[in-house]
Design goal:
Low-confidence stretches: 1-27
Oligomer: single chain
Strand order of the largest sheet: 3-4-5-6-7
Strand content: 25-35%
Distance between the termini: 38 Å
Number of helices: 5
Number of strands: 7
Order of helices and strands: HEEHHEEEHHEE
Mean pLDDT: 81
Length: about 170
């Protein structure tokens, strides 16, 4: 098979450039909103190296989430430039969640990511269907992060990000 030049856009599942609509709150694609919020609540970075290959820095699970957000075709870089992180409560094994507070266009919002039970408690409300799905996927060996957001004093559960987490040979 003939070799081809690298595409400007990465293949599905890889990180790449894209576009962002005017604000995250106006973004009406639930899966995209979920991924963008989860990526904002991550410390990992994904960027293209001088050779054109994509590189990730930080926690591999968070890097996968950031890669997925970039791969949506949204301009992740624009969102990062327009959104300033003003506070972080890092993940801990005791809390089992992470929150980040962001300023954008004169307002602030909080992104939260972590274990389902903690995020569901933080967001409030009943999430029985999502709870069942999260536990079923976890039982199958997937790594699942629940994601929620607080804006204008209102907290809402956005859903869950599911990552394949293959069992290691040395486990």
């Amino acid at each position: 098979e003939a070799a081809t030049e690298p595409a400007d856009e990465p293949p599905v599942g890889d990180a790449g450039p894209g576009q962002l609509r005017t604000t995250i709150h106006e973004y009406r694609d639930p899966a995209g909103e979920l991924l963008l919020t989860a990526a904002l609540c991550s410390d990992a970075r994904v960027q293209r190296g001088p050779d054109g290959d994509w590189r990730s820095f930080g926690d591999p699970s968070e890097a996968a989430i950031v890669s997925a957000a970039i791969g949506l075709g949204e301009r992740w870089g624009q969102l990062e430039m327009e959104t300033t992180r003003v506070a972080t409560e890092p993940f801990s094994s005791e809390k089992r969640m992470m929150t980040t507070t962001h300023a954008r266009e004169g307002s602030t919002f909080i992104a939260a990511k972590g274990a389902f039970e903690q995020i569901a408690r933080w967001a409030g409300g009943e999430h029985e269907r999502l709870r069942a799905e999260v536990h079923a996927l976890g039982d199958l060996g997937y790594r699942v992060f629940a994601v929620a957001r607080e804006a204008d004093g209102h907290r809402e559960m956005l859903g869950a990000v599911v990552l394949e987490d293959p069992i290691r040979a040395d486990a």
